Amino acid sequence: LIAGPFLLVYFFFPTAFTDIPTVLVLLLISIVGGLVGGFWIKRLRIDLDPTLLQRYSRSLLPGEFLLILQAPIDAMSLPVQIIRSQSDQLPSVFIKHPSREQRGTGRDAWEALSREQIKERALYQAIDHEQLTRQEEQNVELLHRLKRSRRWIQDICRSLTEASRLEQGVSPVAEWIIDNEFIVATTVRDILQNLPPRYYRELPKISGDPYLKGMPFAYGLAKELVSDTELRLERGNIVSFLQTYQTVRTLSTAELWAIPQMLRIALVESIQSIAITAHSDLRGRQLASFWANRLIAASRTDAAMIPRLLSDLSLTGPSPYFCTQLVDHLYDEEAVLVPVKDWIESTLEEPLHECVLREQNRQSKAQISISNAFISLRQLNQLDWRTIFEQVSSVEKILRFEPAGIYPVMDFATRDSYRQMIEKFAQLSGRSEEEIARTAIELASQAEGDGKGERLAHVGSYLIGSSRCDLAGAIRCREPVSCLVRDWLKRHHAWLYLSAVATLTAFFVTVLLRLGLVAPFSAEGVWFTLLALIPASQLAVQVVNFLVTHLLPPSELPKMDFAETGIPADCRTLVVVPTLLVNAEMLRKEVERLEIRYLANREKNLLFSLFTDFTDAAQPVVETDNELLKQAVVAIEELNRRHGEGHFLLFHRDRVWSDSEQTYIGWERKRGKLETLNRLLVDRSPDAAARLIHVGEAAALQDISYVITLDSDTQLPHGTARRMIETLAHPLNRPHQASDGRVSSDGYTIIQPRVSPALASSVGSGYSRFFADAAGIDP
Fold this sequence. Notes:
Largest sheet: 5 strands, mixed
Strand content: 5-15%
Oligomer: single chain
């Protein structure tokens, strides 16, 4: 490599050697080329390891030939086929896999403990581990280790698969690994997605333990639980272990949410350990096959070589598994089996039958452990960790004792938002989450004792409501900056939005003036500015909308949970669909859609109704009116007969003269219907009820708290009605009077959910496909 460039230059340009700088450049190029070439030759492992020839040549007998091929395992299939096809006699082929074991000692098998023993280990874990300081908690070594484990398992699985293709035979444990390797890949991908480095760094870390130092507490207890249950995780042993652990050390909210991922990491590492052992067993089985072949050949040609072969074999440090496999291969060879048994018992210093029994037990336990590991990974995917979290969370237990009794009947997302706010206050104040929760409960209890109403007696007022500053003052801590910024933006949203639009509009107009090379104060500049205002303002609005929706994500309103109990009587709701009585076919479709809405939202204390008008006419009554109204009455009565009396109502009103339209119409059309209905619900006038209600009883409207209004073409998907009622029923969303007697801005009297176009209507025409795209400013 080094002399090559010199020879080429001398052959083609012999006069170049008279120039000293040229010679030096050639020398430098040759040295660099030699180093790079040598490095790549070493990297490609083109050279054969000389120790292999020395090691295996001693086992050759007279008349035998030895061919050593050093190549990656996935490249062995073709050479083996060629060797077998080109040989006159069937050759003996042995494949030695590279070792992947890095531990000096053997890997211990897992042993299932009793529930009481598991609880004792949980207490030991909680007592024994100490926490690192905040500055030492920034490493993410566990995540890097997880990635390495994934690569190791993939490489081992590839080797085991190739061994199976080469007809080497694999153990049942190896078959488990080959068949379920995709579960490991999916699990690791999910862990890295659900446990980002930023979240991982916030977890408290262990100090003192040499093996677990710098690892999260959650990982330490997950590792212990996986080991104590022989890799078989179930809801019962997980809950019992966490509850026992927390009798000594309380886990934070972040740690509890990290437990499922830590359990998965511990299982993946256990699978890696089993896979490495399975790969070592494969190596031991192939080596046993090779040495058995040598010993049998020696016994048949030159028995004097057997002691020398056993002496060479002793230098390899044979494992118990290798010895048992060697005996299996020599089972029918009495001449060589006797000295081999004596050699094994002398080397292992124990009787052979005990070694065989111990290896059989190890293989059985390994098969149980690997099956438990993959079953546990599947079980963790099926467990609803939300219920386990709330069962073991100490903060959850404290909040459920709030005086208003609202917290236990809220939905999970709302309860979780409360716990997240407690977590933020704990980080800012340096206090424990339990102390923050107790302080919020004390403030709510004090408000209840002072008779300040249900709203202030609810713990949510001090966590996500307007009284959050009271909690911050009680714990001597400032409110979270994100909450302060959001509150300030809500108070000044109008002028901030308009200012941003105006500023961007001015910026875009200025850019257009510059690009157009028009003097801004000339007549052309004025006309150009006026024309540019329209597209510039539209562009500014779109930019501001984009920034608002991406920088300020929408905050979900707190909700109750009526999924199990149903809608309570004090939240009785009427669903009303304003429509027109045009003809019998349209009436049939409206009634059919009303029934579909009911079937998708079958709830007690939820009524459905049609509020109909006649079409516009030149006179108050048209001859077809009575027939259409009768058909509507019959259709709604049929729904009541089919689904039970009292679920469906029919409201109808007559035409009145409209001066603006110069015809007879339903008063104020759709808005007038809703206003008339609200007046009926508030005043409860018997005359108005008799005039408007054509199907149903007026008594059914006495306790109506909420009204859901739908257009005739608007669907009501399954559970949607209950979710809207759950939102308005929450104390923080209910409208209430402020101290000055006016309605406070904290609650809501009207909520408008997101309305999305149906798939059938969104692709009905080019216009609908263009405007029904999912992109937009609606969050």
